[in-house]
Specification:
single chain, about 270 residues, alpha/beta, Rossmann fold, seven-stranded mixed beta sheet, two-stranded antiparallel sheet, 10 helices, 9 strands, about 40% helix, about 20% strand, globular
Length: about 270
């Protein structure tokens, strides 16, 4: 199928049809941003379809690692939680990268996934996991899930609080990432894998994270931004793609989109 035919067909079908067609073409590879921008231009609503309330999103039986799946048995997750497809994606990425350290913004299901992989794949202490949370309450909920598998000692948590910053000319509330906070964080872990699924908020609240981290990254790093099909996240990706050493490879059509970004520190 040539580009003209592709554009014609998705113009007829609309945004959902465009994403479906892109998924069939790119498979497990990320869909490039230009194609997503074009597809997004066909939408008449603010964001892509959201999960339906009350519909189970995480099926432990569909997690490729059975032992990992057992950690989620009997738990109830809302429609915004990472689902089994996202868990399988993060697991395969981790096993492929074999990261020296993992840094995540926003804890929860991902923390359990990374903690399990670190415990099962690496010798004790070889790989560090650091989780940045916007409130101690969220961190405590995550610790409860970790305790089910005896994993509560794997990650380290930080709750630096929130502060106002500017991203792409807009004031947003994001994590407090002062130099002393980041210096302490990077003295603990030098991540080669970063997962961004927080904070919660209005607007491009996750936008300031990567620009603030860039001066501290010393080695090639893979970054995953969750919820990447949302309008604010697409805006964030456009800005990030222009940063020195940063390349947005595209968005995996998993859940509400998982963007894959590479950072080559200069």
């Amino acid at each position: 199928m040539n580009l003209h035919s592709f554009k014609r067909d998705i113009a007829r079908g609309g945004y959902v049809a465009a994403l479906t067609m892109a998924g069939s073409i790119y498979g497990s590879n990320p869909v490039p941003l230009p194609l997503l921008r074009f597809s997004r231009s066909l939408a008449t609503y603010e964001n892509p379809p959201t999960p339906r309330k009350g519909v189970p999103v995480l099926d432990p039986g569909k997690i490729e690692d059975q032992n990992l799946g057992l950690l989620f048995e009997g738990l109830i997750f809302d429609e915004w939680s990472l689902n089994h497809d996202a868990i399988n994606f993060l697991r395969r990425l981790y096993l492929d990268l074999q990261p020296d350290g993992v840094l995540e913004f926003g804890s929860g299901v991902s923390t359990v996934v990374f903690s399990h992989l670190i415990r099962s794949q690496a010798a004790a202490g070889d790989v560090k996991l650091f989780s940045v949370e916007q409130s101690p309450e969220f961190a405590d909920k995550t610790r409860g899930m970790l305790a089910r598998g005896g994993l509560e000692d794997v990650p380290q948590f930080a709750c630096p609080g929130m502060t106002e910053g500017i991203f792409d000319g807009q004031a947003v509330e994001c994590y407090d990432m002062r130099d002393d906070v980041l210096a302490d964080l990077f003295s603990t872990v030098q991540p080669s894998l970063i997962f961004i699924d927080g904070p919660f908020g209005t607007g491009p609240v996750r936008g300031p994270i990567l620009p603030r981290l860039l001066p501290y990254l010393k080695a090639p790093t893979r970054v995953i931004l969750d919820d990447a099909l949302r309008d604010n996240e697409m805006r964030i990706l456009d800005v990030w793609d222009s940063l020195p050493g940063v390349t947005v490879k595209g968005v995996h059509l998993i859940r509400k989109g998982m963007a894959e970004i590479t950072v080559m520190p200069r």
